[in-house]
Amino acid sequence: xxxxxxxxxxxxxYEFQTGTLAKQANGSVxxxxxxxxxxxxxxxxxxxxxxxxxxxTVEFSERMxxxxxxxxGFFRREGRPGSDSILICRLIDRPIRPIFPKGFRNEVQxxxxxxxxxxxxPVDIPSLVGTSLALSISDIPFxxxxxxxxxxxxxxxYVINPSYSELECSELDIVVAGSKSGITMxxxxxxxxxxxxxxxxxxxxxxxxxxxxxFQHEIMDSIGKPKIPFESESADSxxxxxxxxxxxxxxxxxxxxxxxxxxxxxxxxxxxxxLKKQVKETDPDAEIQEEFEHVKDMxxxxxxxxxxxRPDGRGLSDIRPLDSSVGFLPRTHGSSIFERGxxxxxxxxxxGSEKDALKLDTLSPQESKHFMFHYNFPPxxxxxxxxIGVSRRDTGHGALAERxxxxxxxxxxxxxxxxxxxxxVVGSNGSTSMASTCAGTLALMDAGVxxxxxxxxxxxxxxxxxxxxxxxxxxxxxxxxxxxxxxxKVAGTxxxxxxxxxxxxxxxxxxxxxxxxxxxxxxxxFEILDNMKSEIDGPxxxxxxxxxxxxxxxxxxxxxxxxxGPGGKTIRGIIEETGATVDIQDDGTVLVGSSEKSASEGAIxxxxxxxxxxxxxxxxxxxxxxxxxxxxxxxxxxxxxxMIHISEIANYRVDSVEDEIQxxxxxxxxxxxxxxxxxxxxxxxxxxxxxxxxxxxxxxxxVEKKGKNKNWRKRN
Length: 716
Prior knowledge:
- This protein has 716 residues and is α+β, with helices and mostly antiparallel strands.
- The protein folds into 5 domains: 3-223, GHMP Kinase, N-terminal domain (Ribosomal Protein S5, domain 2), CATH 3.30.230.70; 237-307, Arc Repressor Mutant, subunit A; 322-535, GHMP Kinase, N-terminal domain (Ribosomal Protein S5, domain 2); 549-611, 2-Layer Sandwich (Ribosomal Protein S8, Chain: A, domain 1), CATH 3.30.1370.10; 619-715, CATH 2.40.50.140.
- Strand 11 and strand 12 (334-340) form a beta hairpin.
């Protein structure tokens, strides 16, 4: 049975339609928002044998027909998910995953299919809200609905769910996801805004979320299916107590005495093997291993909450040892190494021209990108073997670093380069995305990119108990991320925040935790920036000798066709002759790039000559292209001729033009006049100095000249 539910807030309206499409899914909803229509489905299958994790997948099936566009790929159909699709999937997965019951092992798949998009409203928020509703009205054991909204900050005012056009002038773009009890996820980019601005935006976003959560409950009460029964398997308390008694104190001792990641892991593994020998007679290895992991995590949490001690001996707000260096790769345009403890990232910058910009084929209005940040996490960075390639995690971490650095880059009008930053993570013990952000900043400065201000990032963790007590941990390492309750990444400059990403493992967190985290992250950010400044205190004054030189010039728009030429013949000729790259934009902006200065200068001169307009008083050196009895025509510009009248050739009487000027000869002339029809009158005589001898003053010169011309005529 079809049902339609409408929710109005501010200037926006959600329409949720159920029972019309995808009726065989466990839960489905058609979400209409503006002129955007998205089909969201949630489907569940039985658990697979041997699966010891929750197999949740979220798929955003990009459909280019939704925006009235044929895909640009070879087969003219959608291929592998692009970065935008992957980021939307991650945005949805992160807040919904903690809502499922612990121990749930059924495979759950959420599929979002955009059927129509209006290129004005982003579709990620409606997709997330639709996912929550599809799960909530299904029989899948999704504990409670969540909601999300985007908050902008424009001219000192907050805007709920801003459009693409509004986001272009917004100082803040933050996605706030939450449940009835509190915040579940944050994702933000900003142009150096204060912590207070961010906190107020979160509060405002959560107020809107609470309204939409209440509305989802009303829909659930109307058409929701009963949830399938599920009870988490209770842990073997006897086994846990036995392992805790035998191992807890030893685990803490290992944490206190052994600091290296690999060394700690070796000692923990040896302890686990010894423990298995003691209790193996009664319990299988797999169960012992699971309970041992539980005891290890509890030992860590107890140390933090009761003793205020971390596994590596740091205080709760201490940062691991820092080290920054730049310029160690000889042929790259910019390079750096950033180390924080055992986490190590190499930053590499490559500069390119307009043609190197990334062309986009997405459901958003953006057609291209001039800044890209790519993150690589090979298995050797954690001392393991494994698959080499780009994962969804890699895409997400790269996008976070890209978001953090983009606000401090110079505008394309001032720095006409395509910029690519790559982070090669070569050592990992937590917070590699923020280390990559720092490495990227250092590499940009080493490359001479005139950034506004350096950016540093830090990851903040949380350990909380059921009584409401909690501790905030600055600069979390791998174990603290694994066994803790939160990973809150904050990046920014000395003047404010540029990016945020929050993921939690508990049901929600409150504003008190968020506020304290932002304060602690600010202090850590300043400390890291000081370390980076000690290595390089600003962008280098010059680009690398191996970087292309891109020069921006402006030509009249009515001259674009002249530079391109028929079928692109002219511009191809310029490129082939000079070796430079030439990119022409619709507004007449021309970008000329080459690593060789002479190549760029040659291409620029050819373009300027093609588009230059002659003016009275301009001096040209051109080739004689035609000789008449009354004068000579000289090509002063490509496709543009002027005439020297016979009276303007010399300071003396000239009886024959050919006595003074020959065909194909180069002569220097000045523009004497331009009539209403655009005909150009040139003068050679005007450029002769007054004291030059005339024919009458020097008869020998006259005879010599006439002799030369006579011989020339005989030869021709």
